[in-house]
Amino acid sequence: MSVATEKTAQQTAQSLTLRDLVKTYASRGRDAVTAVKGIDLDIEPGELVALLGPSGCGKTTTLRMIAGLETVTSGSIKIGDREISQLPAAKREVGVGFESYALYPPLSVRDNLLYGLKARKVKGAEQMVASISDRLEMNDLLDLRPAGLSSGQKQRVALARALVRNPPVLLLDEPLSHLDASARNRVRRELKVLQREFGYTTIVVTHDQVEALSLADRLAVMDGGVVQQFGTPDEVFDDPANLFVAGFVGEPQINVLPGVVRVDSGRARVEIGSGAGSLETAVTGVADGTHVTVGIRPQDCALSARGGDGIEATVAYFEHLLEFGLATSTVAGIEEGIVVQTPAEQTYEPEQQVTVTAAPERVYLFDKDSGERLR
Ligand SMILES: Nc1ncnc2c1ncn2[C@@H]1O[C@H](COP(=O)(O)OP(=O)(O)O)[C@@H](O)[C@H]1O
Ligand SMILES: [Mg+2]
């Protein structure tokens, strides 16, 4: 990228602020659906934020409201100090990488990419297109017509088109979903590097946590039209706000078990299963005898020979993966069992008698009914 383009982009880096943003879809003859239920987000200039959540949680609706492709029911959207929620899409200075965005069929991919730049008399447009297509590994697509492209290729063109527009705010909806695994990894890395270089304030929508964790400066984890937690990947992984976030982020999935808190001379333990034992927890604010939901990540559990402090378990199933093993163990009195991530060099046999341990600060407790984190 030339120094000149980098400079203009850096100068235009803007914050993006959402305040109590709501979207209700009301169509005649159907029940109204409130897809987005009051979202607040403060995105820093040049920051890359991932909206992560299951299908139907309101990610695309949020992005479309920012882009101006969907009206806002209530709330505010600001780029820098400028309120944009009532502006037409074309006046918002937002680059949109939606796959469904139409390309002009009679033009080659190259001319599609150049189209907007030439209309705005942007200097160095050809160089810019050449450089971005090089880095997104799509030089071989430049002379093709849109009709001849596969869905993965269309996706790369849509991404390139959003990037060359050089907008202060860039919105990408599932930008890599149609690429095969190896292309996805490479394009993801390049996207991150380009975003850094250009300094675009960026939102990437994804339902793929690996993509979100590897791309994002911060994640907004969404469910049911609400942001459940907004934080860095480490904050979201290490300090989940509720059971939904704990369960959605992390692979393999966190163990979720019923438990009862026992407090003895100021120290709390949580009993798991019927007489299977207990684990110490760093949680201090829960009364003796409270029934809770316990969350422990497989990465935070360890197995030792039967005996000592911890939960008595029996190995049911052991998988040797490349960098670690996974031991699924049964525990008396709980249906779910516990999955433990074990070191690569260890091997376990079915029926092996073991004790599961975990560091007290990694034993999370959640309200049995609301799923809110107890601390
Ligand atoms: N145009 C529409 N009319 C009515 N309901 C819609 C419309 N678009 C989306 N929805 C509903 O809004 C909710 C959120 O959808 P969406 O924003 O597409 O979620 P996501 O992108 O997270 O999968 C869903 O329940 C969906 O069915
Ligand atoms: Mg969507």
Set out the fold topology.
Elements (H helix, E strand, L loop, with lengths): L2 H10 L3 E10 L7 E11 L4 E5 L6 H9 L6 E6 L2 E2 L10 E4 L11 H11 L5 H11 L15 H14 L4 E5 L7 H18 L2 E6 L2 H7 L2 E6 L2 E6 L1 H6 L4 H6 L6 E10 L2 E6 L5 E4 L9 E6 L4 E5 L5 E10 L3 E8 L2 E10 L9 E6 L5 E4 L5 E2 L1
Parallel strand pairs: 3-8, 3-9, 6-7, 7-8
Antiparallel strand pairs: 1-2, 1-4, 4-5, 9-10, 11-12, 11-14, 12-13, 14-20, 15-19, 16-17, 16-19, 17-18, 20-21
Helix pairs in contact: 3-5, 4-5
Bound molecules: adenosine-5'-diphosphate and magnesium ion.
The site of magnesium ion (MG) has 2 residues, from helix 2.
Catalytic activity: alpha,alpha-trehalose(out) + ATP + H2O = alpha,alpha-trehalose(in) + ADP + phosphate + H(+)
Subunit structure: Monomer. Homodimerizes in the presence of ATP. The complex is composed of two ATP-binding proteins (SugC), two transmembrane proteins (SugA and SugB) and a solute-binding protein (LpqY).
InterPro entries: AAA+_ATPase, ABC_transporter-like_ATP-bd, ABC_transporter-like_CS, ABC_transpr_MalK/UgpC-like, Mo/tungstate-bd_C_term_dom, NA-bd_OB-fold, P-loop_NTPase
